[in-house]
Design goal:
With about 130 residues, the chain is α/β, with parallel strands linked by helices. It has three helices and eight strands; from the N terminus they run βαβββαβαβββ. The strands form two sheets. A four-stranded mixed sheet has the order 1-4-3-2. It has a four-stranded mixed sheet with strand order 5-8-7-6. Strand 7 and strand 8 form a beta hairpin. The longest helix is centred in the middle third of the chain and has 13 residues. The protein is globular, with a radius of gyration of 15 Å. It starts with a strand and ends in a 7-residue tail after the last strand. This is Glyoxalase.
């Protein structure tokens, strides 16, 4: 059985988040979008549901963390090249994001990270499958 991944993230301002991720090249599924939520498509098997905080709270009795000082998840996604990593993160920073940590270059893998408008950590990475240590 094929499994699909849905990551759910609370956001304060859905329009601001959609504008940010649209500028980074992500697309959204309008069938799962309204004023409280949207479905950001990573690929045919992975999606990120951006939910306004009041909608997100309908799915949990726990408190939403304050991303200024806490982290619960780091969302990582692959891109096609080192250059694509740099282009995407550079664009995120130009949109007002901040780096989450210093770039990581292991030779066979390269990543950079950024904070989205709500302080969630995202990592874009490239991995050379021919250079992975055996």
């Amino acid at each position: 059985m094929s499994r699909k991944l849905f990551v759910n993230l609370p956001v304060k301002d859905l329009k601001k988040s959609v504008a940010f991720f649209t500028e980074l090249g992500f697309v959204f599924n309008p069938a799962f979008t309204d004023e409280t939520a949207t479905c950001m498509v990573l690929n045919e098997g992975a999606y990120v549901m951006l939910l306004v905080e009041s909608k997100f709270k309908e799915f949990t009795s726990k408190s939403i963390i304050d991303t200024a000082g806490n982290v619960e998840v780091i969302t990582s996604f692959s891109v096609d090249s080192r250059q694509a990593v740099d282009e995407l993160v550079t664009k995120a920073l130009a949109l007002g994001s901040k780096p989450a940590k210093d770039p990581l270059d292991l030779g066979f893998m390269y990543n950079r990270s950024f904070l989205d408008p709500d302080g969630h950590i995202w990592e874009a990475f490239w991995m050379d499958p021919n250079a992975i240590p055996q």
